[in-house]
Design a protein that fits this description.
166 residues; alpha+beta; six-stranded antiparallel β-sheet; 25% helix
Length: 166
């Protein structure tokens, strides 16, 4: 089994409910305890005018390969109405593999660790909440990327729902 971290984000069609539904679906992929961070509100990236996002990070162990996990995440997105119309545009749900064990993968379909994760408060803060002593595959402690500026970019909107029933 491999410990994976998945980022969740939504800003359309009741974002908190979208994340709740996604967590239930993700828990079915889990081979052991499923944990999710608090839900955070964040400003959208890019130039597209759109509502704020609700973000979280989930972690769980899985037997799925990285590509099989990616396929499962994309199926969950599709089932929740995800349509890919615009880069960095609004969405019902976005699920990204942030970390897959200690693996470093670079392929046309998948890059792990996720590109830009160390620059995105909506990934770093929820990830740090779940794993404050985490060492990234590059050997750098996660804590090194947590700055006061990063911490101030988000606001907690809902406390964690640890260990969802499977």
């Amino acid at each position: 089994m491999t410990l994976v971290y998945v980022a969740l984000g939504a800003n359309l069609a009741d974002p908190k409910a979208q994340l709740d539904t996604a967590c239930q679906a993700l828990s079915l992929l889990s081979e052991s305890d499923f944990n999710v961070s608090s839900y955070y509100r964040s400003k959208p990236m890019g130039e597209v005018v759109q509502p704020d996002f609700v973000n979280a990070v989930a972690c769980f162990h899985t037997h799925l390969s990285p590509i099989a996990l990616l396929d499962a995440l994309q199926a969950i997105e599709h089932n929740q109405g995800r349509v890919r119309l615009q880069h960095w545009g609004p969405r019902t749900l976005d699920l990204d593999i942030i970390l897959y064990g200690d693996e470093q993968i670079s392929s046309p379909r998948l890059t792990i660790p996720h590109i830009g994760m160390t620059l995105r408060s909506f990934v770093l803060i929820p990830l740090f909440e779940l794993a404050p002593t985490l060492i990234l595959p590059c050997g750098t402690p996660l804590k090194r990327f947590i700055t006061s500026a990063i911490e101030q970019e988000l606001s907690v909107i809902e406390m964690p729902r640890r260990a969802l029933a499977q």
